[in-house]
Every structure is written in structure tokens, then in C-alpha cells.
Amino acid sequence: MAPGDGSGTTRRFRGLRLEAVVALAGLAAIWQIASLFVPHFLFPSIPEIAARLLAIFTSWSSLADALATSARILAGLAGAFVLGTLLAMPMARSTAFERYAYPLLNFNQGIPALSWVVVAIIWFRGIEFRIFFIMVMTTLPAFTFQVLDAYRAMSKDLFEMTLSFRPSRLDLLRALIWPTVLPGILTAWKVNLGNAARVVVVAELVGATGGVGYELLQQQQLFDMAGAVAWTLVLVIFVLVVQGLITLIESRALRYRAVAEQAL
Amino acid sequence: MTADPEILFEQVSKTFGRGGGEFEAIYDLSFAIGRGELVAILGKTGCGKSTTLNLISGLIRPSRGRVRVQGHDPYADFTRYRGKIGIVFQNDRLMPWRTAIENVALGLELNKVPRQKRLEIAASWLQRLGLSGHENNYPHALSGGMRQRVSIARAFAGEPDILLCDEPFSALDEHTGNALRDEFRALLRQTGATSIFITHSIDEALSLGERLMVLGRPAHIAYEATIGVDMSETEREAVRGRIRRVLAGDAAEQPA
Questions:
Q1: Which CATH homologous superfamily contains domain B1-84+162-256?
Q2: Which residue in B has a C-alpha nearest to residue A258's C-alpha?
Q3: What is the enclosing helix (H) or strand (E) of B237?
Q4: Which of A157, A164, A179 sits opposite B85 (nearest CB)?
């Protein structure tokens, strides 16, 4: 089999899919067994959770809550990505600018998501903007660092070779810089997606009148474990679907990469 | 010197670094290369050969003196030379995310040649260099020799007026290098581009160049010779001997 024909990757993903199903089925089985021996309000049965999950996907108002949270995550990530990229580019080109920007980003990384929630509530009126602000502030540093690292990893040889054809700035960006930073950007999206899903729930818990976070708060007040697990699963499913989409884009966009027959 | 030179160096010096860490790569280098000339530049490692090419291509500017390509400053008028200067680098420098044909078409694409036309040109160059059937292969699926052929095709595809070659066969094994060298010489003669070929190998310089310059350290012309196609083996051997002596002693000699 020729290296890089994608068959190695396909084989690896098939293996991963099977192992993932086995692992998740194992977890569900343990939960179901636990539900037989402990009080119902602590461990509701799997069929009950499944019924609640189905109810969420078949009720328009519940589905709207799930979609609202998904949209908030994607909007926040998109905002952080654009701002992070805009910040990373001058940092990559100017050491002086980087010296000022880097400590600020590091400082930002130390601020808990909950602090941004408090700040957003005090500073802004609109709920959606509050959530967007929180999402951007918490995921911005990771995007900036990833794009900066990817830009820095650009080959000097390829840069000089491309420059020898005298491209315009836009052509240089399209022909060299974008393909160089793309793997880093995709990784940043994958890493930040999980972070964003966690942060959005915190933001919705305290500031929103709808969404998964808001629904989780309702379940907590009702002491409804089945509902809490079902709403959590909604968020997990969203993350898995988007992760899958990113992986699809990755396998298409990075298909040029060689795959060793013997993976380390 | 040529009356209307394609490439002109006038007392060019190039210094890298600042303060105490300065390094003079080129000192007071002057030469002129006429249109269509095929010049081989020889010299020891670190004598400023690649710096000379970078100055011609406009990637760097001289610290002192004047560089002119087709009568203009290649550094200041950088975009003026779009499509006019092709470079074959020491290593292939292929973009890993582009297929062979897309790599060959890169310069044409940046020069705004329509897609269909540039792919046709790129395919014909790949065919010329014996790479038919490999158009859609990514670089990782090609051998070292094939990748270097693709990079040669990329430099030639834009039909540049000036072709700069920086030791393009040094990273290849002897057999592949020799095979590619013969094809390369034929291509250079066919295109009629002004060509500057940098090499460590005296035999390569003698077989590829019509004119030969040996650079001393820091780069200045230590020896210069014209290589005629009708040159006898004895005359070639004499030139070989002088080059060896110059390279060994790094001392300036008068042109042959």
C-alpha cells in the first residue's frame, strides 16, 4: 500500500470508531447497573435518560434552547478566532508589539471564566453580547497562541521560494501563509471547542433566559438528574458533531500529509 | 564587459550582522553578464555565491555599490521582475500541500496566468522532464530526483528572462545528478535565458557554463574564463588546473 494514500488513516479511524462505541457502551452499562442499586434521583436509568433526550430533540422549544447554545458557541469561537488571528499577525511581524501583547494574553489566561461572567453582567446589558464577550475573552489567548505558533513554524525556504515569484501580499497570504497556518487553526478549533462548551454553560447559568446552561439550572432546581444528564448529553453531542466536521475538513484539507505505515 | 548588460554588479559589498558580529559576505564585487549568457560561478563554501544570487534576485540589497538587472534595481523595483526571474534552489522547496502540477504552476498562478493555461504549461513541462503520470502526486510521494525535476520545471515554466540556479544537483545522488545535469544543460540552451549557475563542482561548471567565474573569499572574482564548445580536452584540463590552484590558494589571478 502506498504511503499517504489515506488507507492508514481510514483504518485508524475505523479502529477508533469501534473502540469509542465499546468505551461508551461500557460507560452506559456501568451507569445502568448503578441505577439498579442506588436511588433513582442519583442514577436514573438509561432508558429514562434516552426518553428525556428524545423529548429535547422532538420539542421545538427545547430544541431552540439547544440550538441557541450551539449558535453561541460557534459565534464566540468565530469571534475569538478572527480577533486572535488579527492579534497574532502583528505579534508575528513585530517583536516590540509581541512584547506588549504576550503578557496581556498570559494575564488573561489566568482570569477564570466566572470572573468574566461577573464583568460582563456589570458592563453590558444585552444577554447575547454578554455571552459573546465571555466566550471571546476566554478562548482568545488559545487562538492567538496557536496561530502565532503556526505562523512562526512557516518554512524560511518556502517563504523565500514564494517571494522569488514576487507575489502580492494577498497572493502570499493565499498561496503560502494560509496553507501553513491552517493545521494550527484546525487544532485550535478542536481544542477550543471543548473549552467553549464548558464556558458557555457557565455564562448561560448566570446570565441567560434560555440555552443548555439555563436548562441545567432548571434541572438542578427541580433535582432532576435525568434531565440534567440529558441536557449535558445535548452539549456533548453538539461538541462531537462539530469535532467530526472539523476532522472531516482536516482530512480533506490536510490530505497531502504522508502517513507512515507503521505509526509510532 | 558587455555594452548593455543584463546583470551588472558595480563595486558591490554585502555585510551581514551588526556591531561586533559583522560578516562581510561580498567585498567590492564587479561584473557584467550579457543577455543570454550562461555563466557558472564556482567558489568555496561561504564565499558569497548564494548571496550573489540573492542580490540578483532582489531578495536582499547591497550594503555598498550598485546591482542592476535589466537596467533597474532588483530590490527597490522588486515587483517589476514578476515572471522575469526564475530560481532553482539547492533543495526542491516544493509546497507539500500542492501536487506536482500545482507546484510547477505556482509562478504562473502568481503571475495571473489563467488556470487552464497554466495547468497546460505545467503539464507540458512535467512531460518534458519525464514526469508524465505524476502530475497529481504530492511531493512526499515523489523521489528526491523527481522532486528536484518538479522544482526545475517550476523555474522554467514561467519562461523567465533570467534563470538563477543555486547548486540544484548537490542534494542528489551522483547518478541522478548526472542524468539531470545533461537534461538541464539542454534546457538552458533551448530557453535562451540568461543563466547563472552556482556550483562546487569544477566539472559541472565546465560542462554547464559558457563563462566561468571563480569567487574568492569574501566574494570577489579570483579567476574568470570563457569556455568554448570547441575547447580541447587539454585546454579544459588547463582551466581545471588553474581553478584548482585558485580554490586552493584563494588568491586572485588574472583572467585567462
A1: P-loop containing nucleotide triphosphate hydrolases (3.40.50.300)
A2: B140
A3: helix B233-249
A4: A164
